[in-house]
Write a structure and sequence with these properties.
Layout (H helix, E strand, L loop, with lengths): L1 H20 E2 L3 H15 L7 E9 L5 E2 H12 L2 E6 L5 E6 L5 E13 L5 E13 L2 E9 L2 H15 L4 H16 L2 H6 L1 E8 L12 E2 L1 H15 E14 L3 E12 L5 E13 L2 E9 L1 H9 L1
Parallel strand pairs: 2-8, 9-14
Antiparallel strand pairs: 1-5, 2-3, 4-6, 5-6, 6-7, 7-8, 9-10, 11-12, 12-13, 13-14
């Protein structure tokens, strides 16, 4: 009987010891949850850290507690929105054999880049050491590859002065032209757009056309009145540097006066400023065009 009592006490003590060594419901875990929520809302609270706390994010070089907020704010500049997801968060607190208190967390993080709206989702492991209720050491581990590549893409775009929205504008412009929605086309033009037809092209006689009305009357109206149809096909859009967009393709058209058909290569170079088209330069087979209209 005495042995049974001693065995029972041993089991109780062992179980109690285990409960102290591992838990998912402690004040330290609540502190980490609050820290994560503060990060999501950008309400940073340095009081959760000890003054001598050190943070290590994918590196052996520490960030001092006084610099952690600055670190986050610098990264925040890259994102339109970012934060840890609510679903799938896991937390645990363990006490090591040396009596150290650590809180581990496994989280999913999602961010949207401000420059191009690209979304990035990664898994992150964060672990915190506590002393007297304060964080004295923080480690963060994640695979940064997707973020690094996305930011490199953004930086390359900046260096080349490439603006993806300019491509979208030109794609819509050609779509509206194909539908015959001339007002929508003109709406993309700057009030002082400089428009140049290729030298020796039938409508180059008014070069340069200045302003949307000049383009409408000197080019679009004449094309609409003199051709049975005038289609742009096989259009390919190329984003180039210095706020320029190049479009290549073919003209397929039928001249009203003689029924002659035009099938010529073409290239259009569009210039942008503040989202508006400020310049246009046409390149095409002007000899073929002249042959068609003079046949």
């Amino acid at each position: 009987m005495k042995k049974l009592i001693l065995l029972g006490l041993s089991i109780v003590l062992f179980s109690a010891c285990n409960k102290q060594r591992y838990s998912q419901d402690t004040p330290e875990i609540e502190t980490v949850k609050s820290l994560i929520e503060n990060y999501n809302t950008k309400a940073y609270d340095p009081s959760m850290y000890a003054d001598t706390s050190k943070t290590y994010f994918n590196t052996n070089t520490p960030i001092l507690s006084s610099e952690v907020i600055k670190y986050h704010e610098q990264n925040d500049a890259n994102y339109k929105e970012r934060g840890f997801l609510k679903e799938g968060q896991e937390y645990e607190m363990v006490i090591t054999d040396e009596g150290e208190i650590w809180v581990n967390s496994w989280l999913d993080w999602k961010g949207t880049l401000a420059a191009n709206n690209k979304e990035v989702t990664i898994s992150i492991h964060l672990t915190y050491q506590f002393i007297d209720g304060k964080i004295v050491r923080e480690h963060g581990y994640w695979d940064p590859t997707e973020i690094v590549l996305a930011l490199q893409e953004v930086e390359a775009a900046k260096n080349n002065l490439v603006n993806p929205s300019n491509v979208a504008t030109i794609k819509n412009l050609y779509a509206n032209f194909a539908k015959g929605d001339v007002p929508a086309v003109l709406a993309t033009f700057d009030a002082k757009i400089v428009w140049n037809e290729a030298e020796n092209f039938p409508y180059a006689d008014g070069n340069p056309y200045i302003g949307p009305d000049a383009v409408l009357n000197g080019v679009f109206a004449r094309v609409g009145g003199e051709w049975d149809y005038y289609n742009l096909v096989d259009i390919k859009i190329h984003n180039v540097s210095n706020d320029m967009v190049l479009a290549t393709g073919r003209y397929q058209a039928k001249y009203k006066k003689n029924g002659a058909v035009l099938n010529a290569q073409m290239a259009h170079l569009w210039g942008f400023k503040d989202g508006k088209v400020i310049s246009f330069q046409q390149f095409t087979d002007t000899k073929q065009a002249d042959d068609v209209v003079t046949k």
